[in-house]
Backbone:
C-alpha cells in the first residue's frame, strides 16, 4: 500500500508541476499559486462539512498549520531561484528535499533493509539526474543555490509535517483544509505586497479573461497538489517514511515525461539516464 500511494503522489505532483509550469507562462506565478489553492480550499471545505471532519480537530492540526506556513515560503524561494537560474541546476537541487522526511523516518527508528537502502540511493541519484543538471555553462549564483536549498528543505519539511497532521482519513481532510487555508492566507498577503510594490496580479495580455479561461487548469493544479499531499500522508502512515518519501519524489520524472509527451520536448541523455535510474531505484524499494 505504501508503494502504491507514494507512486500515486509522484504522478499527481508531477502533473501538477507540469500544469503549474504551463500556467505561469501566461499569468504571474504567485497568482497561479493563490488561485489554484483557493479552489482547493473551497473543495476541501465542502468535503470537511460533508464528512463532519471538524470533529477531528486537535493538537495535531498545528502540524498542518506549520506545513501551510512553510509551503509558500518554499515555493517562493523556488520560483526566485528559477528566475536566477540556471534551471538545469535549480530543479535537480530542489528534489534533494527528500532528505528531510527520510531523516525523520530514520530518527523515528525506521531501518530499511540493504536492498531498500540501495534503492533509496539509486532513486535519489536518478531524480537529480532526471532534472537535467547543467554540468557545464554559466556559474551559479550563491543566492540561487541558497534559495534552492531553502525551497528543497521547505518542500521536504512540508512532507514530514503533513504526515504527522492526522491519523484518520477524515482527520486528513481537515488537516489538508487547514494547510491550504494557511497557504492562501500567506500567499494572498505576499501577492498584495507584490502588487503594492508595483508587481502584477493579472496577465499582461487578457487580464481576468485569461484567468477565467484557465479556471479548469487552475482547478486541476490545485486539486492534484492537494490529492498528492493526501496520498503521501497515507503512504507515510502505512509504511516506512523513507520509502514513501523517495518514491513520492519521483515526480520530476513524471514532469519530464509529460513535457516530452505534450510539448514534444526532447529529453537530454542525462535526463533519460536519470529516469531509468529512478525507476530502477523504485523497483528495488518495492521489492526489497
Residues:
Amino acid at each position: 500500500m505504501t508503494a502504491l500511494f507514494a507512486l500515486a503522489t509522484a504522478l499527481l505532483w508531477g502533473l501538477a508541476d507540469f500544469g503549474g509550469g504551463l500556467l505561469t507562462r501566461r499569468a504571474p506565478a504567485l497568482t497561479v499559486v493563490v488561485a489554484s489553492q483557493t479552489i482547493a480550499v473551497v473543495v476541501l471545505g465542502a468535503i470537511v462539512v460533508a464528512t463532519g471532519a471538524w470533529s477531528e480537530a486537535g493538537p495535531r492540526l498545528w502540524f498542518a498549520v506549520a506545513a501551510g506556513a512553510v509551503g509558500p515560503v518554499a515555493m517562493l524561494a523556488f520560483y526566485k531561484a528559477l528566475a536566477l537560474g540556471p534551471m538545469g541546476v535549480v530543479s535537480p537541487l530542489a528534489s534533494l528535499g527528500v532528505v528531510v522526511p527520510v531523516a525523520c523516518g530514520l530518527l523515528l527508528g525506521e531501518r530499511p533493509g540493504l536492498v531498500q537502502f540501495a534503492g533509496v540511493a539509486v532513486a535519489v541519484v536518478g531524480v537529480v539526474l532526471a532534472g537535467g543538471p547543467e554540468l557545464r555553462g554559466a556559474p551559479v549564483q550563491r543566492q540561487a543555490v541558497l534559495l534552492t536549498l531553502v525551497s528543497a528543505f521547505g518542500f521536504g519539511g512540508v512532507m514530514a509535517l503533513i504526515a504527522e497532521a492526522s491519523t484518520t482519513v477524515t482527520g486528513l481532510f481537515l488537516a489538508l483544509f487547514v494547510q491550504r487555508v494557511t497557504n492562501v492566507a500567506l500567499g494572498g498577503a505576499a501577492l498584495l505586497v507584490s502588487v503594492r510594490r508595483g508587481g502584477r496580479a493579472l496577465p499582461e495580455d487578457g487580464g481576468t479573461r485569461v484567468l477565467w479561461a484557465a479556471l479548469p487548469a487552475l482547478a486541476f493544479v490545485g486539486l492534484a497538489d492537494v490529492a498528492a499531499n493526501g496520498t503521501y500522508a497515507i503512504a507515510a502512515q502505512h509504511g516506512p517514511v523513507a520509502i514513501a518519501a523517495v518514491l513520492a519524489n519521483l515526480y520530476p520524472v513524471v514532469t519530464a515525461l509529460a513535457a516530452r509527451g505534450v510539448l514534444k520536448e526532447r529529453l537530454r541523455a542525462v535526463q533519460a539516464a536519470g529516469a531509468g535510474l529512478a525507476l530502477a531505484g523504485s523497483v528495488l524499494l518495492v521489492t526489497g
User: Anything to note?
Assistant: The mean pLDDT is 80. Residues 2-287 form one domain. The chain is about 75% helix and 0% strand.
